[in-house]
Amino acid sequence: MTGAHWLFGDQLGPAFIAPGEGGVPRDAPLVMIESQAVFRRRRFHRAKAHLMLSAMRHRAAELGDRVVYVKADTYREGLRRAVGSSPVTVHHPTSRAAAALVNSLDGVTVLPARGFLLTQEEFAQWAAGHPEGGLRLENFYRHVRRRLDLLMDGGEPAGGRWNLDHDNREPPPPGARTLDAPAPYRPREDDIDAGVREDLDRWERSGGVSFVGRDGPRLFPAGRREALAALRRFVDHRLAGFGAHEDVMLAADPVLSHSLLSSSLNLGLLDPAECVERAEAAWRAGAVPLNSAEGFVRQIAGWREYVWHLYWHFGEEYRTSNVLGHTRPLPAWWDALDADAVTARCLSTVLRQVGDTGWTHHIPRLMVLGSYALQRGWDPAALTDWFHRSFVDGYDWVMLPNVVGMSQYADGGRMTTKPYTSGGAYIDRMSDLCGPCRYRPGSRSGADACPFTTGYWSFLHRHRDRLLHNARTAMPVRGLDRLADLPELLRLEHDRGDAAP
Ligand code: FAD
Questions:
Q1: Which numbered atom of ligand 1 lies nearest the CA of 407?
Q2: Mind giving me the DSSP string for 408-433?
Q3: Closest residue to atom 31 of ligand 1, CA basis
Q4: How far is the CA of 212 from the centre of ligand 1 (A)?
Q5: Which ligand 1 atom sits closest to the C-alpha of 391?
Q6: What would the mean pLDDT of 14-38 be, rounded to a whole number?
Q7: Per-residue pLDDT reduced to its tens digit, 422-474
Q8: What's the CA-to-centroid distance between 220 and ligand 1, angstroms?
Q9: 3-class DSSP state for residue 105?
Q10: Which domains does the chain have, with CATH numbers?
């Protein structure tokens, strides 16, 4: 076979086989390689392993005779079996490890990356005009909006404001158990899923592979048709309610109005441009309010794009950033997603969501899971690996900046202006999780002291010197001096250690 094009498992949409500049020759034969070694290296959530394999196999079924689908131990072996020593093209992979692999192989030509809004050259140009301290999301997001004429009216942001975040941080409506949003799209499993499940069972029995979490009915799209149905369902029925309560956490309504599109975007099944264009069109048609459309566009054209480019921009050493010197290992209950071991209701609820589905929205990730780990001083690299393994949408490029930078502040503020962590009061304000909990968010000492509240103050205390010099954290750090019960609080934190709270 000559001139074949190789598709990685997260390059599954039409953009990855499109002809044209930097694209794939029309009708070029295609190669896909399912590597079992990937699943031996890490203990993945089983629903994630299922989704990845199901998506690859669905794509292969769609492409029919055009694709040679190889099941191999490693990519190297699979490629040799598929094409021998013939030349191959591949679009730029999404991880440094995969990029190093394709660059090390003879006869592989790397084409530009797909699946993002700006090219790496465009980002480099923008970054060159912004010294390190100016590489902020807000600056970048405005640049993308202008560059793509996205939600713009002439040179001005649609509606006159760039940022409607202020409208999108509402607490839950009083007494609400759910937001009553229209249900999200859920796929129906088929024979391909049944085959995946059999293979995973077999690997677990005899292939040296083990998983965490529940592999219940598949919840996320595995093919282009399913992904488009999910996007349509979101824009037509759920986008309108996306904005205002974006940050809320409700025990009985983990999804709220979130799009659930991250796994489809990260598998390459959806293109970010089609997502943001449809959201803008819905707003222009008067079907959704601007705060919802802008909030969603900000997530994709802002955050997702920003994170992708920072992954490459910050370099390999970013992975080991650890300015706070956090080295404690993750406890076994956390690693195993053992929600039953946990009494604190917010943490057990969120861990259970992850165990059951491999997904939670951004606030449980940031302000419950990430915040808890940050307060305890857990190793940011181990935590990054845990997030990567445990979430259906986790890939190296997206986890590294989100965990190392955004959630653990291990990069000392290259990505965010302050560490994101809080006491129980924030969780109480934004959720219904604290009411029946045995811990009290306002309590700092004694058996009912909320672990997030004690963890918050003890984190500020441990990093007092650094945080006093940050304008955004100096005030709470000074508050430490007014805590008469600080010694007792620190003793309690010490005694509780890393036991499940
Ligand atoms: P929505 O809330 O509906 O948002 C729409 C889309 O915006 C998402 O589908 C996603 O593609 C994009 N998006 C929003 N925020 C981010 C972000 N910070 N980084 C990248 N994309 C973003 N997102 C992932 O896709 N994969 C991850 O592995 C991942 N890990 C995270 C880890 C931590 C600690 C934190 C704080 C955030 C992480 N995120 C990750 C971002 C965000 O939490 C998820 O994208 C979002 O919760 C997915 O649900 P959704 O599709 O319903 O998103």
A1: 34
A2: T-TTSSSS-SS-----HHHHHHHBSS
A3: 402
A4: 21
A5: 28
A6: 93
A7: 999 999 999 999 999 999 999 999 999 999 999 999 999 999 999 999 999 99
A8: 14
A9: coil
A10: 4-111 (3.40.50.620), 120-185+221-313 (1.25.40.80), 323-496 (1.10.579.10)
